[in-house]
Amino acid sequence: MPTLTKLYSLEEAARHNTADDCWVVVDGKIYDVTKYLDDHPGGADVLLEVTGKDAKVEFDDAGHTKSAKELMQDYFIGELDPTPNIPEMEVFRKEQDVNFASKLMASAAQYWPIPATVVGISVVIAVLYARQK
Does residue 8 contact residue 79 with C-beta atoms inside 8 Å? Predict the structure, then answer.
């Protein structure tokens, strides 16, 4: 039966990057190696350098033995969260214009000569048409 493990983001693992609190990610698995820093054959600095990223390449390049890989299981605390980090979407709502009526009146006051001209020309045409009959 599969066991459930805690999921952590890479950003969360990266925050644990001091000698008092050190997490290392290797191949998508997260290890709290804080208690192992003094015992690590390569020194604590090697582990502190790889916090905040997946250190699989560095781990494999170092040529760790089978017993070293088995020892890692003692420090296993969880896995990287496989879901992509999608930023939260911001919702913008166009505010309803409460001054619509006042803006309409201002526009009408500004452009009143246009409809007045149209009405005047229409009256003149109507009068001229009526005289012809």
Answer: yes
Q: How far lies 98's CA from each of 92, 103, 105, in Å?
A: 18, 10, 13
What tens digit of pLDDT does each residue of 63-84 get?
888 888 899 899 999 998 888 7
Per-residue buried b or exposed e for 61-75, using 16+ beta carbons within 10 Å of the residue's own CB: eeeeeeeeeeebeeb
Tens of pLDDT, residue by residue over 16-27, are 988 899 999 999
pTM of this structure: 0.60
SS3 for the chain is CCCCCEEECHHHHHCCEECCEEEEEECCEEEECHHHHHHCCCCHHHHHHCCCCECHHHHHHCCCCHHHHHHHHHHEEEEECCCCCCCCCCCCCCCCCCCHHHHHHHHHHHCCHHHHHHHHHHHHHHHHHHHHC
